[in-house]
Amino acid sequence: MPIEKKLKGILIDISESEISSDDIKVSSDLNLDFGFNSIDFVELIVEIETTFDLEFDDEDMDIDKLVVFGPLVELIESKMV
pLDDT, tens digit, for every residue of 4-54? Predict the structure, then answer.
């Protein structure tokens, strides 16, 4: 299953708002578009690390890398190489 599809599933599960896979675009801002808060981001990081069997480094914990869907996918891809 492609990274984007798995990540969309994680986002849908975590989000407290009603979103669908079609709502999530490359430019989607998880905070502004879907109401993610700091607790949601912690849960998101844990789920990504578990699902993709990877570990984020301290320098990856930059909100600019985590808040927009496209760059988040790129970050996950870079960790899986």
Answer: 999 999 999 999 889 999 999 999 999 999 999 999 999 999 999 999 999
Tell me the fold of 3-79: 1.10.1200
Give CB contacts under 8 A, 24+ apart, made by 25-30. 25/69, 26/69, 26/70, 26/73, 27/68, 27/69, 27/70, 28/68, 28/69, 29/67, 29/68, 30/66, 30/67, 30/68, 30/69, 30/72
> Where do we find the tokens 């990877």?
54
Domain limits, the chain? 3-79
* pTM metric for this prediction: 0.91
